[in-house]
Amino acid sequence: MIGDKMRLDKFLSESTELSRKDIRALIRKEAVTVNGETVVKPELKVSELDLVTVHGKAVSYRKFVYLILNKPSGYVSATEDRKYPTVTELVPEKYRHYNVFCAGRLDIDTEGLLILTNDGDLVHDIISPKKNVYKRYYAELDRPLDESDKTAFAEGMQFKEFTAKPARLEICEDRTGAYVEIAEGKFHQVKRMFERVGKTVTYLKRVSIGGLELPTDLPLGGMIEIAYDDLTDKIYNERRLS
Ligand code: URA
User: What is the whole-number distance in angstroms between the Cα of residue 68 and the centre of ligand 1?
Assistant: First the structure.
C-alpha cells in the first residue's frame, strides 16, 4: 500500500541496480539523503512518499518491472529447468533482482513476443481468456492452406480439455504461411488447431498480444523494458484480423 514503510536499503535495491553492499558504501560516503537529511543507517524506514536521493539525484520507488523478449527457439518459458536453458537466463543483469517470470508460455521451439514481469496481477489479466486479449501468431505449415481451413478456425474447435473460441486465420500469398489469432493460450493450441485441419506447423512465432506488437528491431534473444502504462494501453488497444 502507498505509504507502507520499508528499510531504505530495500527501497534502493528494489529501485536501482545497486547491491546492498553498494548502498552501505554510499551511505558511509554520505551520498544518500531522505527528505533533505543525510542518512547514516541503511535500516532507516522510508516509503515512496519520501524524497530519497543518491548523489543528489531523486530515486523513485519501483516495485514492478515489465520486459518484452523476442524469444529464440531452444529456451523454455520458465524460471528453472533441468534440461534446457530458460528465458529468465536472457534477463539483463540490471533486472535480475526483480525475479521476473513469464506472462504466459511459448513452446520451446516457438519464437517471438513474451512478456516477463514480477507483477502477478498483470500476468493473470493477460492469460485469462475472459479478458479476450487475442494473441497473434505467424505460422508456417507443411502444406498449403485453403478457405475451408479459415472456416474451421472461425467456427471454434472442441478439444478434450477445452473449447477454442472462434479464431481468425489470414492465409499468406504462398498459402503455406498464415497469421492466426487466438483468445486462449492452451498447451500447443496453435499447433493443435492446424493439426485438426491436417497441417503440421513447421515454424511458429508470436507477433502480438492484444495491440502490443513485437518490435521489429528487437533481435532474437533481445529484451527491452516497457512502462506499465505503455504496455497496458497497447495490450488493450488491439487491431484485429478481419
Ligand atoms: N500455440 C502453440 O502451439 N505453441 C505456442 O508456443 C503458442 C501457441
Answer: 17
In terms of Cβ atoms closer than 10 Å to its own Cβ (0-12, 13-18, 19+), residue 231 is buried
Which member of 22, 50, 107, 125 is catalytic? 107
Determine whether 229 is an active site residue: no
Q: What is the pLDDT of residues 88-118, one digit of tens each?
A: 999 998 888 889 999 989 999 999 999 999 9
Q: What is the pTM of this model?
A: 0.84
Q: How many angstroms is it from 237 CA to the middle of ligand 1?
A: 23
Ligand 1 atom showing the smallest separation from residue 188 Cα: 3
121, pLDDT greater than 90:
no
Ranking 7-21, 146-160, 213-227 by mean pLDDT, the lowest is: 7-21
* Closest listed residue to residue 203, CA positions, set 190, 221, 212, 185: 190
